[in-house]
Amino acid sequence: MIKKVQLPLQTLNLVVGFMVWVIISSLLPFISEDIAIPHEKLALLTAIPVVLGSVLRIPLGYYANIIGARMVFLLSFVVLLFPVYYLSEANSYGDLVIGGLLLGVGGAVFSVGVTSLPKYFPKEKHGLVNGVYGVGNIGTAISTFAAPIVATHFGWSITIKSYLVLLLFFALLNFFFGDRHERKVKEPIINQIKGVYKNYKLWFFSLFYFITFGSFVAFTVYLPNFLVSEFDLQKVDAGMRTAGFIAVATFIRPLGGWLGDKFKPLFLLMGVFSIYTFAAIILAFSPSMSLYTVGCILIAISAGIGNGVIFKLVPLYFNKQAGIVNGIVSMMGGLGGFFPPLMLASIHSITGHYAIGFMLLSEVALASLILVIWMYYQDRLIKANSI
After folding, report:
1. 3-state DSSP assignment of residue 84
2. How many CB atoms lie within 10 A of CB 146?
3. Residue 338: inside a domain, yes or no?
């Protein structure tokens, strides 16, 4: 019974973690009415939770193997109680920075499930399982959509405090329903890192996830304020549109994992980065709201499929070191969400528009497409020589 509930339980854990992770970006239009935030520091503030949420993915993925997902999730939710309460009482930019940094624990829990859940399923289902778990990304959409509506009626401070109840509830759920007997792996982290860091596939997968998940996170934290400032949308309208972007990227992720189980993952990534290249070019030309929406939807579709496919590739190439590799790859994906908002803000302050930033995204996607094609034909060459 306990083993059967791990997939839904850990997926819901991820929903909650990601809901907490994006509290600041979801409520920034409301918070900025009460707390003076320098315009040039808005992007930094929304990107700050991404830092710890990225770096902590390595140790959390590692400790998911050492002490089990149950304890890592439970402890993470207890730790998150402190920054959430602190943020609800914030009255300065410094308070937002401190609380926002610690919110990163919510984003870091991602590596726990992708390390733990494959233990309960056969290899041919790992892509789908990790894809279903990735639906937990919808937590960012829930916060982005619901938090502004609640804040409109009750204020942003009470809205943030409501997350405390959610965190306590899920800490208890993990205490009672988490798997106390999960299979453990106790190889020292240094040995695991030594076994993978020279493998070029690790860094290629990290780059691919840097783009796919990074753009998902970057658009999630940047769009609410961007749509208000660039297109003069209402705050709730901007939140709903951002939630739509997140929903598309999230719900298509299991499809990416399933496709990765059924077809050649590298071949699928070729299509993903082709779409990315095209969509980013659309966004670079500062189009109307309708064309901008088309570009964002294309990014969401390719990000969702790409995220699902990449975590089919990791256990395929790194069966024995999946925990540490999942941590490194997912960390790079998180960092991929940290840099673009800062880069876009800097480019806008210099040029007055975002065209160069989006063109850079298209060029990096094109470079990734070339690398995927090279990997695909390298694999075919190796198989041909081994026959």
Report:
1. helix
2. 16
3. yes
Q: Name the residue range of residue 335's domain.
A: 6-386
pTM: 0.81
Q: Break the chain down into helix, strand, coil percent, rounded to 5.
A: 85, 0, 15
Rounded average pLDDT over 316-342: 78
Residue 367 included in any domain: yes
SS3 string, 290-317, reads HHHHHHHHHHHHHHHHHHHHHHHHHHHH
Angle, nearest 10°, between helix axes 289-317 and 322-351? 160
In a domain, residue 1? The reply is: no
Q: What integer is the mean pLDDT of 57-61?
A: 87
Question: Does residue 272 come out as left (phi exceeding 0), alpha (psi in the -120 to 50 range) or beta?
Answer: alpha
How far is it, in rounded angstroms, from Cα 340 to Cα 211? Answer: 10
Q: From its phi and psi, is residue 232 left (phi > 0), alpha (psi between -120 and 50) or beta?
A: left
Give the integer Cα–Cα distance in Å for 112 and 64: 5
Q: Say how far apart CA 4 and CA 337 lie, in whole Å.
A: 33
Predicted confidence (pLDDT) at residue 109 exceeds the cutoff of 80? yes
CATH code: domain of residue 222: 1.20.1250.20
Question: How many structural domains comprise the chain?
Answer: 1
> Which single residue is written with the structure tokens 């624990």?
105
Q: Provide the pLDDT for residue 53.
A: 86
In contact, 369 and 204? CB cutoff 8 Å: no
How far is residue 300 from each of residues 244, 252, 336, measured CA to CA in Å?
Answer: 9, 9, 15
How far apart CA 170 and CA 12 sit, in angstroms, is 9
CA distances from 280 to 171, 201, 239, 259, 354 (A): 40, 25, 22, 24, 11
